[in-house]
Write a structure and sequence with these properties.
Strand order of the largest sheet: 2-3-1-4
Order of helices and strands: HHHEHEEHEHH
Number of helices: 7
Helix content: 40-55%
CATH class of the largest domain: Alpha Beta
Strand content: 15-25%
Number of domains: 2
Radius of gyration: 22 Å
CATH superfamily of the largest domain: Lrp/AsnC effector binding domain/regulation of amino acid metabolism (RAM) domain
Largest sheet: 4 strands, antiparallel
CATH topology of the largest domain: Alpha-Beta Plaits
Number of strands: 4
Distance between the termini: 35 Å
CATH architecture of the largest domain: 2-Layer Sandwich
Mean pLDDT: 88
């Protein structure tokens, strides 16, 4: 299961999920093929006792509310010959047809099978992308073509090959965040975070 593009909030009812919903979602994010029986056992290990029927109802509700948009598989990129992960940053220039050209670039990235993520940003760069390739030669070929196709709107282009140490995410709320930070402060030493240590 992967994170999807946020849905615009206009005329959208606020969806309320509780701590049990979050735990169920985190288990599905980690392994979308977990059965309700497996989820029951894992939740029991966290001190949450629920029936399979209760879990099924919660998952059905989350699907109906579009909190869960779908399910997908996590793939070992090395075993499918896609070991090259490239981070690209772009700073734009502003020709007369800038808006039209950016739309063309967005369409290209949307359709490119090797582009996993692209987004407009704020700050010193204007655009960021993550792309996966079979090898360095392929990555370089795409970079050369990309710069040729969209060079008229690119002031600065940079690319970085990444050595992945973690890929994945989990849902958390403010209390989860504070708990993690406080536990890490205790482990690393209160002097590293004196303001937080006062509240520990």
């Amino acid at each position: 299961m992967t994170m999807t593009q946020p849905v615009p909030m206009k005329n959208k009812k606020e969806v309320i999920i509780d701590s049990i919903d979050r735990q169920i979602l985190n288990l599905l994010i980690a392994n979308a093929r977990d059965s309700t029986r497996t989820i029951v056992k894992k939740l029991a290990g966290l001190g949450i006792n629920m029936s399979e029927r209760g879990i099924g109802k919660r998952i059905a509700r989350l699907e109906k509310l579009n909190v869960i948009h779908g399910y997908t598989a996590m793939v070992d990129l090395n075993q499918v010959n896609m070991p090259i992960l490239r981070l690209v940053t772009v700073k734009f220039t502003s020709p007369k047809d800038f808006v039209k050209r950016v739309e063309a670039m967005k369409e290209y990235l949307k359709n490119a099978p090797y582009c996993d993520f692209s987004a407009r940003t704020n700050g010193n760069i204007d655009w960021i992308e993550l792309k996966f390739f079979n090898n360095h030669e392929q990555a370089q070929q795409e970079e050369d073509l990309y710069r040729a196709w969209f060079g008229d709107i690119i002031e600065d282009y940079r690319s970085y090959d990444l050595d992945i140490h973690k890929m994945g995410w989990q849902l958390f709320d403010e209390s989860d965040f504070n708990r993690f930070i406080q536990n890490t402060c205790k482990k690393e030493g209160a002097e590293t975070c004196p303001n937080i240590a006062k509240n520990m």
